[in-house]
Amino acid sequence: MISRRRKVILSWLLVGVAVATMLVFGVVDGRDDRTNAERAHDIGATIACPQCVGQSVVESDVAIAREIRAEIGRLVVAGHSDDDIRARFAERYGDWVILTPSTSGVSGLVWVIPVVGLVVGVGLLAVTLSRWRRASMTGEEVSDQDRALVESARAGMRERRDG
Asked: If DSSP codes are grouped into helix, strand and coil, which group holds residue 99?
């Protein structure tokens, strides 16, 4: 028979494996079967419109955005990679035009810090819950003085409620 402690450890291990699996599938782009139009749309959604504020070239309908969408389409058909196309626009307009941060260098911290924060938070929660559990299992006896104090507080609350 498996002890309760081992069941808890096994449960947390399974949760960890599930989270790691979801993170891996979230990072790995499994959309290799996209059409050229889908690729062009996805790339355009990651490039900011140079004229508009807070819009991608896909969302904007100004002339420059239409030109950039057409150029993205031509580059996709020509066989350029997504990263190469984004790099061309970053060279032309500056790094600010790329809406998704890089996964390398200092910009990569944008992707790492939330995951680290989540892991640290879950770890702290597990430690806190473990300490609470151990404290509740120590079985400290309640003194007669403590019981009398609680009873007098309850009596006072009853008097205020009824009075």
From this structure: coil
For residue 55, which amino acid is it? Q
DSSP 3-state assignment of 51?
A: coil
Tens-place pLDDT, residues 45-98: 999 999 988 899 999 999 999 999 999 999 999 999 998 999 999 999 988 898
- Residue 97: closest CA among 151, 141, 135, 55: 55
> Against a cut of 0.85, is the pTM above it?
no
Residues forming beta bridges with residue 56, ordered by sequence position: 48
Rounded to an integer, what distance in angstroms lies between the CA atom of residue 128 and that of residue 131?
5
Amino acid identity for residue 106 in this structure: V
Go through the chain and tell me how many residues it has.
163
As a whole number of angstroms, the distance between CA 73 and CA 94 comes to 20
With beta carbons less than 8 A apart as the criterion, state whether 71 and 88 touch: no
Distance from C-alpha of 130 to C-alpha of 136, rounded to nearest angstrom: 10
> Which token pair is 84?
């190469």
Which residues fall within 8 angstroms of residue 65, CB to CB, at 6 or more apart?
A: 49, 51, 52, 55, 57, 58
Q: Tell me: the pLDDT tens digits for 126-156?
A: 999 888 887 777 666 778 898 899 999 999 9
Give yes or no for a contact between 99 and 56, defined as CB atoms under 8 angstroms apart: yes
Matching residue, tokens 């807070």: 54
